[in-house]
Amino acid sequence: MVRDRQHGPVVELNRLQVCRYRSKQGTGLAGSDGLKSVFGQMTLKMSQLTPEILALPHRNWKVKFVGESVDDCGGGYSESIAEMCEELQNGSVPLLIMTPNGREESGTSRDCFLLNPTARSQIHLDMFRFLGMLMGIAIRTGSPLNLTLAEPVWKQIAGINLTPADITEVDKDYITGILSFLNPLNVSAGLKCCLGGKP
Predict the structure, then answer these.
(1) Which DSSP string do the residues of the chain spell out, in sequence order?
(2) Which pLDDT value is given to residue 82?
(3) Under 8 Å CB-to-CB from 198, ≥6 apart: which residues?
(4) Bridge partners of 115?
(5) Which of 23, 149, 165, 179 would disulfide-bridge 153, Cβ 3.0–4.6 Å?
(6) Comparing C-alpha atoms, which of 83, 77, 87, 114 is closest to residue 98?
(7) Residue 56 within a domain
(8) pLDDT of 1
(9) CA atoms of 73 and 26, how far apart (whole Å)
(10) For the stretch 10-29, what's the b/e string if a residue is b when 16 or more beta carbons lie within 10 angstroms of its beta carbon?
């Protein structure tokens, strides 16, 4: 029975190449489209993660780090997930971008990330699919991912419509900018109305 297994397939991951490719690219990406990152390497091995493997109660894969003497008794698996979460947020992989408030260092959600709307190639879609698998594994096993996604991202994943207040949470200038185009003389009254206050 699948649930009696201790782990899924053994996957080889090369963490040593990540730094080499990040500095070689000059863009921060680990290889073209982030494929040399640990996250990218796991995306390419995603086909090994069958529904039966994903139903395992603990380790969905066993890690062998190339060139490292790590015996994965659970630590390598956890380390690989932590490494992937770090890569998603440090620019090694192009799936997430800092919120506009974070880039401008103003407003709320400055330390949060949004899904990158320009990541639309087939490899990016595969990476998003693998990110969804990671989220599913985290929910099912009760092991949270160290990802700082902005609240509106979670609302979109849950199928909840966004409000102007949600947009302002990640980009404080967006609604104000839109309202200034619509009615340049009454921006503050329009903003209060959009955010649930009275004009």
Answers:
(1) -GGG-SB--EEEE-SHHHHHHHHHHSSS-SSGGGTTSHHHHHHHTGGG--HHHHT-SSBSSEEEETTS----SSHHHHHHHHHHHHHHHHTSSTTEEE-HHHHHT-SS-TT-EEE-TT--SHHHHHHHHHHHHHHHHHHHHT------B-HHHHHHHTTPPP-HHHHHHH-TTHHHHHHHHH-TT-HHHHHHHHTTS--
(2) 95
(3) 192
(4) 96
(5) 149
(6) 114
(7) yes
(8) 44
(9) 35
(10) ebebbbebbeebbeeeeeeb
With contact defined as beta carbons under 8 Å apart, do 112 and 148 qualify? Answer: yes
How confident is the model at residue 190, as a pLDDT? 52
Is 169 among the domain residues? Answer: no
Q: Which residue has the tokens 């799936």?
A: 95
Q: Is residue 182 part of a domain?
A: no
Q: pLDDT under 70 in the chain at which residues?
A: 1-5, 22-27, 70-74, 182-199
- The answer to whether the beta carbons of residues 127 and 93 sit under 8 Å apart is yes
Residue 188 lies in a domain: no
Work out how many domains the chain is built from and give that number: 1
Nearest in space to 29 (alpha carbons), one of 120, 117, 124, 146: 124
Q: What is the pLDDT of residues 98-109, one digit of tens each?
A: 999 999 999 999
